[in-house]
Predict the 3D structure of the following.
Amino acid sequence: MENVNVIADSLNEKFGGRIGVSEDGKSLLVKAEEIIPVLTELKENLTFSFLADLTAVDYPDNFTVVYHLMRLTDARIIRVKVILDKENPHIDSAVTLWHAANVMERETFDLMGIIFDGHPDLKRILCPDDFEGHPLRKDFKVEAASRQ
Amino acid sequence: MAITNQEGSFRTQEFVLNMGPQHPSTHGVYRAILTMDGEYVVDVENVIGYLHRGMEKLAEDRTYTQFIPYTDRMDYLAGMLNNWGYVMTIEKALGLTIPERAEYIRVIVGELQRIASHLVMVSSFALDLNGFTPWMYAFYDRERILDLFEMICGSRLTTSFMRVGGVPNDIPEGFLPKLEEFMKDFPKRLDDFDNLVTGNEIFMGRTVGIAPIDAETALNYGLSGANLRASGVKFDLRKVRPYSIYDRFDFEVPVGTRGDNFDRYNMRMLEMRQSLRIIRQAVDNLPEGEIMAKVPKVIKIPAGDTYCHIEGAKGLLGFYLVSDGGTKPYRLHLHGPSFVNLGIFPYMAKGTILQDAVASLASIDIVLGEVDR
């Protein structure tokens, strides 16, 4: 199995060393402004053509958007992470590459509050339209619903 | 007999038709806002979330073991497979190997569950095409599978059968004879079902060539499981990257050619026979031995990320686990195949008549518990 470093190296031929590898050596680290070119390269030329999953994690000092791309011939998965600013989490939408990203980005927006620029219809999907807050953020506290 | 939209025929003003959330053909609590031109669907907007229970948030406040019962309630027609995917994720994160016998038991119940789930799909698909009888046939067989589940874990639907490290109960007395009986009868029952439905002229007239999806579109929309295979993409995780012990079994992966409603239905019919083959081999080679690996009472997962997915009943069922080294997940993302599969419904429904759109929805086999989580 080829490891993440090899894929990072082949990406870096095109992106001039700006693609990093996470500390545990399992994920690619990409800058937010370069995400679409990198995903395009992974999809078109490096055979990771299937968007298996798209979500985000709320860490104490940042939001991380996590993509899992899959190669169909051997089901190998590559994880791509983008670290976003806590105050203003914006990233370009991947709907132009995969229609599948449409619902997954809406879900991530709804539950985590990440704004996907260029998404055709970015609105809540699981929570009601008038819901306040983004439930999967760590500062959102769960409490019992008030009885009426 | 194909009903076609005649060019330049009588057109009416577009109107909005609301379907659901409480409607039998929506397979749960799901609402479709349809823009209609007479009988023809012009546009669809999916409205989901009526069954959203915030499982991902709840997981952050539960220990790893405590979350197992929640997984049953995702795709509630395939509890065993959800359990399996979840515990496999934890086992992968821990680097745990589980005993052989437990793997075999998992395969047996997992494939039985796949059959049970597919039986619901084929029967409700026929039901949405106005055929009530197939429902009675398929549910008779599904009952027998649920009876087997009741024997092995006391529960029929929300099984919570699997544990991190193996399975909690060994196969009880009387289970294998009953399973043998089922395996003896089921191929004949499938033949009956094929005779009754698959080759039925009215059924074929209503399904062949309706809502075709080509391979490229299917991949672009992220379809997986039988829906993807119906479009001619031979991708089954059990074959491409065998998890558990699937590399030991001899089975085939059926693929479709047209990707229409009929192919999607037929994939399930063919896959049930393959599942039966797998169960046959698993029962014949069932080894003796332990059913639980040594797992500490309190499970702590080293800090880091794990992504694990299995070939669920509806497609690729994924779990993305982020641990901070504690006893609870820092973040657990549940990737439900139905959620993604539903995204293609507007594409399928556009340009078809309303009654075919209802059938198209049934053909992608969604379960709202998994869509909304």
Notes: The longest helix of chain B spans residues 100-128. The beta strands of chain B are 15-19, 22-23, 28-29, 31-37, 40-47, 304-311, 316-323, 331-335. Chain B has a mean pLDDT of 89. Chain B has one domain: 53-351.
